[in-house]
Amino acid sequence: MVSRVIPVDVFDLVVFGGTGDLARRKIIPALYRRFRAGQMIEGSRVIGSARSDFDTESYRAFVAEAIDEFIADHASETVAAFLKSVHFVKLDATGKEGWADLAKLMRKDVVQAFYFSVAPSLFGALAERLESHKIATADSRIVVEKPFGRDLASAKELNATLEAHFDEHQIYRIDHYLGKETVQNLMAVRFGNVLFEPLWNALFVDHVQITVAETVGVGGRGAYYDRSGAMRDMVQNHLMQLLCLIAMEPPARFEPDAVRDEKLKVIRALDPVRHDQIVRGQYKADGEQQGYLEDVEHPDSLTESFIALKVHVSNWRWKGTPFYLRTGKRLKARMSEIVVAFKPTPHSIFDEEAGSKTNVLTIRLQPNEGINLRVTIKEPGPGGMRLVDVPLDMTFADALGPVAREIPDAYERLIMDVIRGNQTLFMRGDEVEAAWAWTDPIIESWTSRGSRPHPYDPGTTGPEDSLMLLHRDGRRWREIEDYGTD
Ligand code: BG6
User: Fold this and answer.
1) N or C, which end of the chain is more exposed by having fewer CB within 10 Å?
2) Contact status, residue 19 vs residue 50, Cβ threshold 8 Å
3) Which atom of ligand 1 is nearest to the CA of 410?
């Protein structure tokens, strides 16, 4: 199988915050890979911009270093060719410096995109100056990152700030989970097969589990993380998107607003979550590594590094089927998966001794992406009819060969979609606001009660109480286990 690369139109991409961490770790390596693959064609330019004392020459050296650090196999001729497309403009987001230079450099006859890889407090200043210096056109795109607000009020404010200068069709709000190949695959599995959709509802689905487990701690991001916690950092956005893709109605077409309309309906159908349906945790220290409280240098912190919650989607399709979500840091393994557990057969024709089994569909998102369907068969051999479960297991890497091993990073896909003008995998303003409208009361409820996260041992599945969340309902989480590497 050969992957097809369709080159995108010639573009000028300005990266505000071009010397920052996201640019270095994600944006530059993604652009380089797309250049190497032939998707970013000659004539396109990457224009780094920041207040730092760089010029085009020293910025090219910075870009070369980033490629060196984050891309294992790079040929020096390709890097040299890529660097020719890299430029730098020193600019003050809130002042006057540099804007005339940027205006002079930009071309009006190519696709223009502006990546706001800066603190949200600068969005307004950047948007306003792009307009007042007549740099942006009616077709320019702007790209913004999460966190998109920290509650409904701040998200509304950010939307209003951006919408004062740009139309919604020009605003690309990134949730990098939507750029993951396997997350897109969720839609292919659901809507490209006739097999699952008829069963995809409360009549046949007992419950759904969504797990995003990480082994890393909060690393060097303690200050940001402690103001956010797992709910704001992961659930309001990434897990919410996964939930939407699993729960939404089939859109009429795979088109931006058709898909986003359906996701929005799911978010709006979410019930409020009672506090006894939520378990929060904080990782403890172990022999080698510090605990959460030391990592964030805040001994009294009440912020969670783990959360598990039971969620209901109150609509015709899902009434009565719980969705259990959990995510946390410093857990036993890095793995993200979605489990769709089906109900038992309506009537068993076999004796009680045969045992009764249920079908379970597991979609592994990372690492080692694949699908596993647990089916019931007869245990081979004599001794009567006894039922056993066997996995029908498909790892994409085995099924598809090398193509599956060359899965592009989410940022590669998303940046190319910005240039193509395709918003399907980006969050619309109303979607983000609806997600905060659901999240806010949940956070307020634990804040007002002063609730304290349960400490948990690193390398485990999180606090014991999160197991209880399912045990109480006669269910259990799937084990968090190591699937191998990416
Ligand atoms: C980010 C969060 O959005 O996603 C991080 O801020 C988290 O805390 C990361 O570690 C997880 O992303 P991935 O792609 O490694 O699953």
Assistant:
1) N
2) yes
3) 14
C-alpha atoms less than 13 angstroms from C-alpha of 140 in its C-beta half-sphere? 23
Q: Does the structure show a pLDDT above 60 at 2?
A: no
Atom of ligand 1 nearest to the CA of 177: 14
Q: Which of 238, 275, 454, 471 is catalytic?
A: 238
pTM of full prediction above 0.85: yes
Whether 238 is a known active-site residue: answer yes
107-121, 145-159, 389-403, 428-442: segment of lowest average pLDDT: 389-403
**Helical axes 56-70 vs 76-83, angle rounded to 10°:** 140
Identify the helix (H) or strand (E) that includes residue 370. strand 370-378
Question: In angstroms, what is the span from residue 136 Cα to ligand 1's centroid?
Answer: 31
Q: pLDDT for 387-398, tens place per residue?
A: 888 888 877 777
Residue 111 makes CB contacts below 8 A (sequence gap 6+) with 8, 9, 10, 11, 12, 139, 141, 419, 421
| Average pLDDT of the segment spanning 305-325 | 98
Of all protein residues, whose CA lies closest to atom 14 belonging to ligand 1? 177
396 alpha carbon – ligand 1 mean position (Å): 22
The answer, yes or no, to whether residue 344 has pLDDT greater than 70, is: yes
Phi and psi for 234 in degrees, rounded to 5? -125, -45
Q: What domains sit in the chain, N to C, each tagged with a CATH number?
A: 11-145 (3.40.50.720), 178-471 (3.30.360.10)
Cα(272) to centroid(ligand 1), Å: 25
Enumerate residues lining ligand 1, CB below 6 A.
214, 233
Query: Residue 422 has which token pair?
Result: 């395709």
Rounded distance from Cα 237 to ligand 1 centre (Å): 11
Segment 163-186, tens digit of pLDDT: 999 999 999 999 999 998 888 888
Q: CA distances (Å), 429 to each of 149, 261, 401, 417, 426, in order?
A: 11, 11, 38, 18, 10
Which of 478, 473, 461 minimizes the C-alpha distance to 391?
478
**Closest C-alpha among 396, 419, 414, 417 to residue 483:** 396
Minimum CA distance residue for ligand 1 atom 9: 234
